[in-house]
Amino acid sequence: MTPGPTVRRDRRVVLWRHGQTAWNLERRFQGSTDIELTPAGLEQARRSARLLAALRPDAILASDLRRTADTAAELASITGLDVTHDEALRETYAGAWQGLTHEEIVERYGNEYAAWKRGEPVRRGGGELETEVADRAAPVVERNAEKLPPGGTLVVVSHGGTIRTTIGRLLGLVPQTWEALGGLSNCCWSVLGEGMRGWRLLEHNAGTLPQPVLGDDD
């Protein structure tokens, strides 16, 4: 029996990184540590929320850490949508790396850091593999996207590393190539659109004039 035509619903997923934190400025690896936004980060969230509201999102999904929850709240206040929080969208747990600056990580864990940057599977600081982050985060995004109406938009508020791995998984890229997806600046976003053969990357690190990437995945 010949299969029927693929149904295309033209859904969109917007993966939005949280606003600036003090540890971003200090280039400290945050991981799953619960760090709050700076006043500048809160203003970034407000500015970006006004832009994202113009997309008329149907749902908002967010990590339960304060920096993402407070970012998501700004969009919720404009759109009137509720925010669904899920700990599966947290940043990568990085064990002993968490709280260290990038310079301290290179000094203390140089070989481990170099292997990670080469694309090798590394439990940074004894924590999670990037593939394990994708294993927990990507299915949550997919389940919530399935609930969208045709042409609907889901905004996912998460963290730089988690967004990178989720995009890589949803696009079907092999993990060794995920590094090719550049990091997201604070409160910038990437957009995935539904095509005939799955998800496609429509925009990456969008939302502002170029800003430095200050995060755990750079």
TrEMBL record:
<feature type="binding site">
    <location>
        <position position="67"/>
    </location>
    <ligand>
        <name>substrate</name>
    </ligand>
</feature>
<feature type="active site" description="Proton donor/acceptor">
    <location>
        <position position="91"/>
    </location>
</feature>
<dbReference type="InterPro" id="IPR001345">
    <property type="entry name" value="PG/BPGM_mutase_AS"/>
</dbReference>
<dbReference type="Pfam" id="PF00300">
    <property type="entry name" value="His_Phos_1"/>
</dbReference>
<protein>
    <submittedName>
        <fullName>Histidine phosphatase family protein</fullName>
    </submittedName>
</protein>
<dbReference type="GO" id="GO:0005737">
    <property type="term" value="C:cytoplasm"/>
</dbReference>
<dbReference type="GO" id="GO:0016791">
    <property type="term" value="F:phosphatase activity"/>
</dbReference>
<dbReference type="InterPro" id="IPR029033">
    <property type="entry name" value="His_PPase_superfam"/>
</dbReference>
<dbReference type="InterPro" id="IPR013078">
    <property type="entry name" value="His_Pase_superF_clade-1"/>
</dbReference>
<feature type="binding site">
    <location>
        <begin position="17"/>
        <end position="24"/>
    </location>
    <ligand>
        <name>substrate</name>
    </ligand>
</feature>
<dbReference type="InterPro" id="IPR050275">
    <property type="entry name" value="PGM_Phosphatase"/>
</dbReference>
<feature type="active site" description="Tele-phosphohistidine intermediate">
    <location>
        <position position="18"/>
    </location>
</feature>
